[in-house]
Specification:
By secondary structure, this protein is mostly helical. The protein has helices at about 5-10, 25-30, 35-40, 60-65, 65-70, 90-100, 105-115, 120-125, 140-155; strands at about 130, 135. It binds heme C (2 copies).
Length: about 160
């Protein structure tokens, strides 16, 4: 490429020379949304998750969060283990936590699969329906989240 053209591109299109995408650029804000957080802190005593307040007398989750309410296949409405609670963590810590807890295998592929295709993630982005009514979904919906997730994974899943 002619050097004057390259210079023009660099000056004119700073987006072209952008820094690699970090978790804190956009994704972390999505993770902090109550639709993600309420389920991820469900089993946390320290953060008064629902297992310790509204859900103290709980049975099988599907009895109330039935498939026709959630739109999820039966058995999929479940809360993660307490170690998957990112309440109060900053972007870098949340990023390290979710990378640490990935199932073994190709980590970029596992992360991409989860963020783009997990039915619970999808519920938080597009449904928000509970037995107590519909709660607000994550702003930007699936399209924006999927784009940000792809960019972050493609950039090497940087935490900082
Ligand atoms: C007896 C009925 C009932 C059962 C059983 C039940 N839930 Fe709920 N759940 C509700 C109701 C009603 C709400 C809405 C009110 C609220 O937010 O607490 C709710 C809300 C929630 C929320 C908050 C959703 C949000 O995005 O704010 C989560 C997370 C949740 N339930 C998880 C579970 C899990 C996990 C189980 C099984 C371990 C379960 N629930 C079992 C009735 C139930
Ligand atoms: C109904 C509860 C529920 C909701 C809502 C929910 N999750 Fe999860 N999440 C889970 C469960 C259960 C797991 C562990 C399941 C597994 O390992 O396959 C999990 C695992 C994860 C993981 C770990 C993946 C890994 O392997 O490290 C990430 C990242 C994640 N969720 C992100 C989110 C985001 C972002 C949202 C909101 C857009 C969200 N979750 C909404 C229940 C939920």
């Amino acid at each position: 490429m002619k050097s004057w053209l390259l210079a023009a591109l660099l000056v004119g299109g700073s987006a072209l020379a952008a820094e690699p995408v970090k978790f804190g650029d956009a994704l972390n804000q999505k993770f902090q949304h109550p639709r993600c957080l309420q389920c991820h802190q469900f089993s946390s005593a320290r953060h008064q998750g629902r297992a310790y307040n509204s859900h103290t007398a709980r049975f099988l989750c599907d009895r109330c969060h039935s498939d026709n309410i959630t739109g999820l296949p039966r058995g999929e409405w479940i809360a993660p283990a307490e170690k998957m609670d990112w309440t109060g963590l900053d972007a870098r810590e949340t990023c390290l936590l979710i990378k640490r807890n990935l199932p073994s295998g190709d980590s970029a592929e596992k992360m991409r699969e989860h963020l783009l295709f997990d039915v619970r993630v999808r519920w938080a982005l597009e449904s928000g329906m509970t037995p107590g009514g519909r709660f607000p979904t994550v702003p930007g919906g699936y399209t924006e989240f999927a784009r940000q997730a792809r960019e972050w994974v493609a950039g090497g899943m940087r935490c900082e």
